[in-house]
Fold this protein.
Amino acid sequence: MEDFYTVQGEGFHTGKPAYFTRIGGCDVGCSWCDIKESWNAKLWPLTGTDEIVKRVAACPARAVVVTGGEPLMYNMDYFCRELKKQGVKTFLETSGSHPLTGDWDWICLSPKKNSPPLKEIFEIANELKVIIQSKDDFDWAEKNAARVGKDCHLFLQPEWSVRDKMMEPIVDYVKTHPKWQISLQSHKYMRIP
C-alpha cells in the first residue's frame, strides 16, 4: 500500500527510526483501525518486491517494520530473505491470524478478538501489544499474556479515539499488574506518519 521512512511510534521500539512497509489487504477488520483504506488490496497498485527492498536497504536505519493491513495474508519469505541479504533487520506487526512466513528479528503480536491469533505465533512473539478500547479488554489482554513466552514484552495501548477515557484505567491496571507496560501512539502526538 505504501512505504516510507519514519520513527516507530508504538511499543517496544518507540522512538527508533525505521523504514515502514504497509502491506495492503486485511481480513481482520477492526472497527477502530486507523488505516481502513489498507483493507482492500485491490485499491493499491502492485509494487515489485525488489523495488521495495532497494528502498529499504537505502535507509540509514537498516531496519524495516512490516505492517498492514495484515502482512501475513501473504508469503513473506522472499521479501525477508532479500532484506536479510542487505543486512536489514526485519520487524513484523501482526494480528497473528495467519500462518507465519518470513524470517523476523522481532515480532509484535497485536491480537484481535474477531480473528484470534494462531497458536504457534504466541511462543515466538517478542512483544504482545493489546489495544484497550474498554475495560473488558483487560481480560482479553490477560488471556493472550498467558499464552506468550516468559520473555515476551507486554504492552497495553489505548485505542486512539478513547485514549482520554481509557488512560486512567490503563495506568491503574499497570500499577496493579506491573508485568504490563503502556504503549502510546506517540507518532500521532508528534504528527509524523
Q: What stands out?
A: The domain at 2-190 is CATH 3.20.20.70 (TIM Barrel).
